[in-house]
Structures are given as C-alpha cells and as structure tokens.
Write a structure and sequence with these properties.
The chain has 343 residues and is α/β, with parallel strands linked by helices. It has two domains: 2-62, Transferase, Pyrimidine Nucleoside Phosphorylase, Chain A, domain 3 (Up-down Bundle); 75-154 and 161-335, Pyrimidine Nucleoside Phosphorylase, Chain A, domain 2. 47% of the residues lie in helices and 11% in strands. It is built from 15 helices and seven strands. A hairpin with a 2-residue loop joins strand 6 (232-238) and strand 7 (241-247). Helix 3 crosses helix 9. Pfam families: Glycos_trans_3N, Glycos_transf_3.
Amino acid sequence: MKSYIEAIQANCNLTFQEMEGAAGLLFDERTNENEIAKFLTSLAIKGETADEVAALAAVMSANAVRPGFPEDTYIDNCGTGGDGSNSFNISTASAFVMAASGVRVAKHGNRKISSAAGSHDVLEELGIRNDLTRSETAAMMELTGISFLFAPNVHPKMKRIGEIRRRIGSPTIFNLVGPLTNPVPLHAQYTGINRKDFVMEYASVLTILDRKRAVVVAGAGGPDEATLAGRNTLVLADCGDLIPFTLTAEDVGLKPASLEAIKGGDAVRNASIIRSIMDGERSPKFDTVVFNAGIGLFTDGIVKTVHEGVRLAEDSILSGRAKRKLEEVTAFSAQCSNKVVTS
C-alpha cells in the first residue's frame, strides 16, 4: 500500500490495473488501517480519476452479494452524498415517486457517513427494515416495484472500510464509487455528484459499467441532486453517447428556491419531511423531489423529456399513488422476519 500512497502523494494518477491492485489491499484484513486512511485521504486530496473510480467499482461489484432479482429493467437513483448541504433525503423520497410512476427502482444506499441522516437511517424511521433476507428483498421488488439494498448487507467486505470512513469524517473515493456498485444489473441509472468538474468523467464510468442509459447531475450550489437554486449541470449517457445539458427549475415549470429551503435534519426530521411531501404539501422540498424524480423518469425512458417526467412525478404524489407506494413498502417490511441478509 505504501507504494500506492507515495505515487498518489506525488500527484500521480493510478492506472486501472494499479487501482485494482490497491483495491485488493483495501479489502485485505492484513492491511494496516492507518495506511488505508492515508490512501483514501491522499486520493481525495489529489482528486480521483475515472480509471480509479471505475477500477474500484469493478472490484467491489465482483465481491458483492447478489439479491437474486429476476431479469427485468431496473433503475437506481442513489447519489454520492458527501456534499455537506444538509438537505433532506431527496433521492429516497424521489425513489417512491418514481416507483409509483411505473418504473422498477432498486435503491442502493447506506447509513449516514458524513451527513446527519443517510438513506437507511430515514428508511428505518419510516418503518422500513434494512435486515431483510435476499428472498424478502426480491419479494419486496416483485410485490411493490421498489426495493432497498443496504450497502453493508450486499458489500460485507466494506465493514472495516466503513469504520475507517467514519473516522475520516469527510468524503472519499467510496462516496463516488458507492452508486456504481449496486449488485442489481441496472439498465438505467440517475445519480448525482458534488463535483461539477467530474460530471462528464462520471458519465463515462457509467458507460464503461454498461449502463445503457444514465444521467449524472451536479446540482446548482453544490449538492448531489438537481436543485431549484440555479442552473444544474448534467450529462446524459445514451448507449455510449455522452450528451451534456443544463436545467433550471424554470425550464420544467417549477419555481426557483434557495438551498436553505431544502435543509433537513436528523432521521426523524427527514422522515417527517418525506411524509409531508407524500401528503401533497406543496413547498420547495416538494418541487425538489418532483424535479429529481422527473429526471429519473426521463433517465429510465418512460417519458421523453424531463418536463414530462416532472408532470408525471407531480401526478404520482397528488393522486396519492406515491403515498400508497410508501405504505405498501412499509406494510411489507412489517410482515418480514427479523433476519440478517445472508449470501
């Protein structure tokens, strides 16, 4: 590991093959934890490249536990996190809206690492378990059209890395890699990053990882979600073609709002926000969810434009379908036995 650290600290980028070798050491129990922390922080200081991200994602995916979903078209809308915006769990709320709009959502996520509430912290507060068996996870997808994949369950080798990340307390390459390691074979992916300069490279990584269609967004003002606060930077990856574009709230018939308007809190607070959105309470938080759900629906291909997607997302909430979807998932979760996911 020392040679990789020295190369990175000398501002040298690792090749795909070198990063595969480094990744093997990251997951080796014999590797010193302080060296792992130094490697991750040094890499973050240098700035990760597409090859480094793709190689680590490939190694993690190869070691992931598969949930055994039947062959179908699935989309994930997990973002990288680590943006420091303290927003509520936008992608989690959007996932229910997308599922209620007719797409099959395999939502990958984790507990909080560098935020007040990660996706599975708020899901737990909503009454959705993260200890379902593989068969229960698959049954949730079959019955409701949405399922949640808890990263520690599908990536058991990440336990020690997770503890090291918590000690570091700031974003690392694992924030970038997280959304890329969903063990479900995805046909589409909508994801956000908090690095405007990396959007095109991240879209390239998704193409390398065989996503037929994907959209990457860097939100206006810095979040890893599309926001109402200005012009959002996006890239559409469509069968290998990379198409950059931008979007504002006004472009899709929504009102602009500041980042302060989408602030969240802990899991209890964020669950309350999500419930109010599902009840149809109009606010910048509601508009932010339909904005992101609309982009997700466009990414999936169920609609031809983001504007169409936003209208469909609004209807999914105001008709009560999104709230019923949340209730279906919560009811299913309550019926499941208390078992830890196994391979």
